[in-house]
Design a protein that fits this description.
CATH architecture: 3-layer Sandwich
Helix content: under 10%
Radius of gyration: 13 Å
CATH topology: Rieske Iron-sulfur Protein
Bound molecules: FE2/S2 (inorganic) cluster
Strand content: 35-45%
CATH class: Mainly Beta
Shape: globular
Oligomer: single chain
CATH superfamily: Rieske [2Fe-2S] iron-sulphur domain
Order of helices and strands: EEEEEEEEEEE
Number of domains: 1
Number of helices: 0
Strand order of the largest sheet: 1-2-11-10
Structural class: mainly beta
Number of strands: 11
């Protein structure tokens, strides 16, 4: 999957990255972005909110943007570990990074 271009604005400790239009991600799906060299999966949940996580599963590198999602979690497509969007944890003990993400006037903004 090719990474989409991003535009960055430096704030305080974190940097807000504008990743383009929210509509680039269909509702209920996700896309992977390269943000200053870091692969980030951005999910557009069915309630319209956005979540962002590290793109690769810590178990064996599964592409989390290709996983099944609901409002609470993403399920890795390779071995079905379910990571909570709230804290990045799964029942098996692995944890993924969660990044603040929001829809700002129709644009995806992720902080990292
Ligand atoms: S690579 Fe994700 S659960 Fe194995």
């Amino acid at each position: 999957m090719s990474a989409l271009p991003v535009e960055s604005v430096n704030t305080h400790a974190k940097t807000a990255h504008r990743l383009g239009p929210v509509d680039a991600i269909p509702v209920g799906e996700a896309r992977t972005f390269a943000v200053t060299g870091i692969q980030v999966a951005v999910f557009r949940l069915r309630d319209g909110t956005l979540r962002a996580t590290q793109a690769q599963c810590p178990h064996a590198g599964g592409p989390l943007a290709d996983g099944q999602i609901d409002l609470m979690k993403v399920v890795c497509p390779l071995h079905a570990r379910a990571f909570a969007f709230a804290d990045g944890r799964c029942a098996e003990g692995d944890q993924i990074r969660i990044y603040p993400a929001r829809d700002e006037a129709g644009e995806i903004v992720v902080e990292l």
